[in-house]
């Protein structure tokens, strides 16, 4: 991973102040309380320093390979492709990572960073619990105590992730609400204990997190490039990914930002579709699109079924990519997502998490009628164990 | 630079020795009661009132102030209502310092130019925005505009703030410097007096602005101890918000809270 | 995979009659009713034919790689090694396979075989549900209807596997009891519908299943050889694996049968330790060690916590390997297994299935005091999601 | 080769035209009742009784016979008990054919040489082992030993059995050939008469042994139809086991079941 900046490249990352873009159009920034500001600056420096350190990056790659089992396969979804009858659909199989989602790569990167910074304790927020259990696994592996915060709504939905996290030795603090509330709460906990390391789970919140998470997750897109060239001798025509905060999507997109011919499509949940229906605001540390009240006093309660994408806001880099037209964003409904879950289970023998099924909804729409050599790569960013109870409740287990 | 003439006057007065700064959540528990409470606070010797406007994702509020803000949000009282409230406070008293305090979200959506225009009209003395460090573009806009309009921009410094940054912030701030007594959210920790003392000394190395210190001041005794560190003002918030939340049904709420406030202003006189 | 036989090699597989070894010492065989005998012979021929067909084997390898994500990593359990203080412990990470256990490799192989034989329906038994959900995923992928049989005791323990299997489109038939009863019942169902394909989930039952399952799973040991040579420039000193029927263990062992310097150790559950405490008998199609009544009328009810190894009998090849002293067999108790589960979660950040923790119990005992360059590879043949509820019930989620 | 002199005599007798073969689970529901039932069966015209010994993992038993065997196992009645039972049956009647039927497990553990010795003493006519195809070493041992002792070894053929294999099995069997009417477990399917007819014809191409056909024969009418296919004997099991299980409390169980059996033997006479 070179850290050199290429002129005019979209891959250069935000400026020193954490902004993507300039002037009025700048997205991101440090909208943080003073207590954390020095901590954040320190983190930013430590990050910049770490990624210049070859031995650090080598260590990250070592555990990516041996513990996470990267690269995750680029899987030709043969049956789905046939069924839809159009573009060739590939899944980037992040669900096969150790701990079952893309989240673990970011956890590994930041845990190594926390160790490098000599931090003694880790705090995390989580929506779907995927980040919580992945972070707990990573912290167990690297012997760091960890405390997670989750909303009660999500705790009920994805209980298995919580049991796992606890087995790894993590503690949980529950708050009313969902991911939004968990983030606000963990920022407060961090403010109360600024010596701890906040391991942010998505490409959101105050700088430097959007950049750090993007950096760690960009391995997804790098692998896609290599694998797609190997399988198909060309780049994909489109890359699709779901967005909560936007870490798996920015991870999949980033490598291709300068390859203008590759279409990048992000998919949110219907009620939390900040990029389709939101307005620019500043909350939870960042200036970005969000579903908020007109006066900026309230982040709206969203209610999408997949906890991991049920988030009122979105990472600032996505807002920027939308504004400049480099990426497109849309949304899927709970019903579409559940139907697509079933379709993928029944055609490809993959029990997916609900979140990535939002992306596959769009993949199906766009694949139809495309030529056979048109390639769509969709990030299958998590496996479905965590969602089984909810799906059973809503659709039964027989789908009849 | 203090900027607001009124704040200048407040801090240059001999008495009270240490100014008392009271924080209230604006429109809490209702618009009317909030007005009564602030009036009672002024009547009982408060020099400056910080009136908070509410945001759902406020990141520096402990559970007590959060509950109060959630109530305000549920009542649909907005920043506009808080400005109206401030206007009535100003109408009631021309000498008290009035600071609006909250998060950048509401100001950004107002948007900032309109916000300045409104508060100028209402004769507000200063603004404090918790999540707008000088790294933030909106902070820059706000700071510039406030300055142009002679409204103070209160900046916070924290125990985590390193010296160089402290100096920078002191240079940028106006009105007074808000010194955080500990690293953390409102109302959750206790104050380590020797730490505060060191910090106040450090701040005073960098600026001539008055220093008001807040967070964790729960009792008049606390306030007196804090005053001994050399600060010009002591800020109390959570203790009063807590009192309000616990006495919502008290028909003499403002009067009783006033007595409570009186104990603080007496001890600081 | 060469199918040529080397003289005196232990890797040659059973004789035509399905026996490992000769005369009185022969283990295995076809102890089946006449209705199934022609079907079994036919299957044996089809298997022998298929493994000589390069395009078939290529197809198997293609999906192993792209769908299952083989090879599974050989993972250096650094923290556990340090904690124990002796031999270098590696985990063969079968838990990272798609569907979460080693079972899927066998399912893939036999599903391809079923398709090659033009079968229209698949029957499976399952203990831990790992085989059921893996087979259901595979059958979904290859569009074959599938019916599974499980014991009620197990259905209660590992419900998430059942929901998954149903999401993949499988049907379930419940019987009283556990894996033993499921096998007997599925053999009856097959007898009633001999045109269907019985996809046996372990290296057990009548010939030719022990051989077919061994063949498919032997990819585990082949990968271990290659990976261990790459990491360590030598073969492992010991290979450990848990045994229910013995598919993951024979899969791990088989490649090394002729490398006499490599110690092979199988670990059963305490009450189902057929190889440590059983007698030779003939039930469920095979002559092998089993926990039975003296008069051969009753297969004893075993009651080990991990459903996948709670099986009264064991694959015949293991019985043979025990008799000739090529492999050693021992057992672990439920309590040891739960303690080891916690230890692995807390040191390596891996939430394992309970079954392989039986093997790790033994690994820990044997690693102690060994030199630092002594290498033990232990098969981590499944992940833990299926067991979370049971562990929580027995130990709580906080382990306090 | 029929081997057993008694079976030879049974099958060469003019009457009944088609021999009636009754299967019972030995010691079901108890040792004593089982003995009474078998005696009643003989008294009502049964030519051959197949007495089953029980194994927990029996793989060809439908739910009804499984339930009966489970009861026997729960009662701890073993193969030894079944042999004793057979001895009492033999003491009661010297003409009836007695076949022991079950799985290889119990014989293997007996072990086989002792088993042969015991049943020889008891004057048993034949043995049928469901899960012992000629591919199994234990089958070879058993077959050899039975032959040496002039005890018949009843072999099964199934609709799935291909011709070449059928011939081989016919050559290896003795006593009679047990023709399965369908592919499946006991008592769960109905008989397709034309299929059975074809199969019986095929068997008769390969052997002079009598053919008895079983599985799915539920009523006397069924039995009559099966008899029309040219078999020498018709086997009924599940129907009687079911009757026993449903009438456990009947104090006249054996007598009433006997009447039931009489209907079969009458129609086949
Ligand atoms: C499986 C899965 N996919 C996607 C997401 C959304 O996160 P992001 O937008 O950061 O990729 C989550 C978050 O929890 C998740 O668990
Ligand atoms: C995770 C896991 N490991 C091990 C086993 C035991 O099977 P085998 O002995 O065939 O490897 C099972 C069976 O269900 C299982 O699910």
Structure description:
The complex is a heterotetramer, with two copies of chain A (400 residues) and two copies of chain B (269 residues). With 400 residues, chain A is of the alpha/beta class. Chain A has two domains: 27-61 and 102-213, Rossmann fold (3-Layer(aba) Sandwich); 69-101 and 218-399, Rossmann fold, CATH 3.40.50.1100. Chain A is built from 16 helices and 14 strands. Chain A has helices at residues 37-50, 54-68, 78-84, 103-116, 130-141, 152-157, 159-167, 179-192, 209-217, 219-232, 247-253, 274-277, 316-323, 334-348, 354-367, 388-395; strands at residues 19-20, 27-28, 74-76, 88-92, 122-126, 146-151, 171-175, 197-198, 238-242, 263-269, 279-283, 286-290, 327-332, 375-379. A six-stranded mixed beta sheet of chain A has the order 3-4-14-9-10-13, sandwiched between helices. In chain A, strand 1 (19-20) and strand 2 (27-28) form a beta hairpin. Chain B has one domain: Aldolase class I (TIM Barrel, Alpha-Beta Barrel), CATH 3.20.20. Chain B is built from twelve helices and eight strands. Chain B has helices spanning 5-12, 31-43, 63-74, 79-92, 104-109, 112-122, 137-148, 163-172, 193-206, 220-227, 238-246, 253-268; strands at 19-25, 48-52, 97-102, 126-129, 152-157, 177-180, 211-214, 233-236. An eight-stranded parallel beta barrel of chain B has the order 1-2-3-4-5-6-7-8, surrounded by ten helices. In chain B, helix 10 (220-227) links the parallel strand 7 (211-214) and strand 8. In chain B, helix 2 (31-43) runs parallel beside helix 4 (79-92), helix 2 runs parallel beside helix 12 (253-268) and helix 10 (220-227) runs parallel beside helix 12. In chain B, 58% of the residues are buried. The model of chain B has no long low-confidence stretch (mean pLDDT 97). Classes of the chains: A alpha/beta (400), B alpha/beta (269). The interface between A and C is large, with 47 and 47 residues. Residues 101, 103, 127-128, 130-131, 202, 242-249, 308-309, 353, 355-356, 381-382 of chain A line the site of one pyridoxal-5'-phosphate.
